[in-house]
Amino acid sequence: MNPSLTVPQSRNSIPSVRESKQQVLWIGCSDSSFEEITCLGLLLDETIVLRSIGNIFLDDGLTCLSMVQYAIGILQVKHVVVCGHYGCGLVKASSSAGLTDPWLSKLNALRSACDGQLRGSLSVERDRRFVELNVLAQMQSLQRVPEVASAMGSRNMKIHGFVYDHSLSEMVRLDV
């Protein structure tokens, strides 16, 4: 690379309408889109987004923890949203070795723990229910993070769970 070809760019190189103020930490699935964010009427500049396989929050993962600490400690977000989506192929995945192993092993452990709730349902119903149970499990995992628990207690930060239904372009709220 030729250093003489690099030219510093001014702050206005890419026009911006206004300064953004992120108020929502959005934890969504890697294979989803931004459609679910706008479905709730949120502006993209109001959110800071963390995407992971199957919207899994790894409470021992550096990326997940650093994002949560930044969003809650520095940005002081008011809301954390965990959002899954029906038809997610990642929650159907089976255990395999590789880069996805921490995520898939967490999903497989959840599936084993919820086997009684899922047994007897039709395949589509079972998959939809498992997506919902996964969102609820990730919400619980978040609540165990000290910064999250502290923000919930001291400044009334809220955690919300949603599942996006692509076929209806609608969001389903999960009550805890």
Please tell me about this protein's structure.
- This protein is an alpha/beta fold.
- The chain has a single domain, classed as Carbonic anhydrase (Beta-carbonic Anhydrase, Chain A).
- Helix content is 37%, strand content 18%.
- The protein contains six helices and five strands.
- It has helices at residues 35-39, 62-74, 101-113, 115-118, 123-143, 146-154, and strands at residues 24-29, 47-52, 79-85, 158-165, 170-174.
- The chain has a five-stranded mixed sheet with strand order 2-1-3-4-5.
- The mean pLDDT is 82.
Given helix and strand content, the structural type is alpha/beta
CATH class: Alpha Beta
CA-based gyration radius: 18 Å
Annotated CATH architecture: 3-Layer(aba) Sandwich
How many DSSP E strands? 5
Order of helices and strands: EHEHEHHHHEE
Give the proportion of residues in helices: 25-40%
Give the overall pLDDT as a whole number.
82
What number of structural domains do the residues give?
Answer: 1
List segments where confidence is low: pLDDT < 50 over at least 5 consecutive residues.
Answer: none
User: β content, as a range?
Assistant: 15-25%
Kindly report how far apart the N and C termini lie.
54 Å
Characterize the biggest β-sheet.
5 strands, mixed
